[in-house]
Amino acid sequence: MTVTPLCRSLTVVFREPLARSRKIMSKRLSSSAGEALRQAILAALRDVNARLSDDAPSEADIHLARRAAKRARALARLAPQRLDTLARQTRKHVGEARRMLGKARDAQVRRATLARLAPHLDEAHAILSEMIDRPDEPVAAIDKDAVRLSISALVRDWTLCDPESDRDAIIEAAAESYRKARKRAARAKNGGARELHRWRSAVVDLEYHAAFLAGFAPKLRGHSKAADRLRGQLGDINDLDELVNFARGQSGGDQQRAIALRRLEHAIVSRRAKLLAKAIHQGETLLTKSPSRWAADVRRSCAT
Question: Which fold does the domain 30-104+142-165 belong to in CATH?
Fold first, then answer.
């Protein structure tokens, strides 16, 4: 087929506006992705402060404030390189807030974990309850004003920053979290407490990254939910490890306490093994793709 000069000229006429429109659309997508990320970070930070607005926050408020802090920390990892200083400050300050708030829940989590093990402990349960009976860090002892002031400063800085970010760069940053979760999953198969804790931290980041990207690629909602389930399994293992380690520090050489502690260790072994096997299986299902394949699939999903 011969292409006439008229056809060539028409091709050029239509190609140039199309190229310009693609550039404009690409810029708009980058701008909207960056703005969406900023708004997600701001929402998480404001949620932390809202949960701590009462003079005496409830246990539920403390728990939700910690989750919001983790969400802000995870999303800050998706920020562009030019906002690296702000992202680092965000992770630092929300991390400090999360650890401070955790002190108000540690005793409550230990009691709840021990209660779930009660059917396997018989008379040892009463002794163990006494061993771990330590009052919660009073919420009043938490310097909520300092936490809220620190978070408010971050809200100000994120509000004033230039949020523009390339969506593909955000996907690549999320793929790095996926790669990290995959790598730590392999190391955690030995069941070591430290390795499992580090794996869970990476899974938390992946969960929030997938949830954010689901705004562009709805198929990732399932991925985020699967990561949340895995996070729960790993959290249960961590709670068991924290309980038995705390109880070991309270035995004090007392014979009855030593017997009760051995009963607790025995009860935990089987439950922990089941949780670990389930977590490894869930991890293999969630993290089956290579990081490059995962990122490519996300980009395709965003384009449809």
Answer: Four Helix Bundle (Hemerythrin (Met), subunit A) (1.20.120)
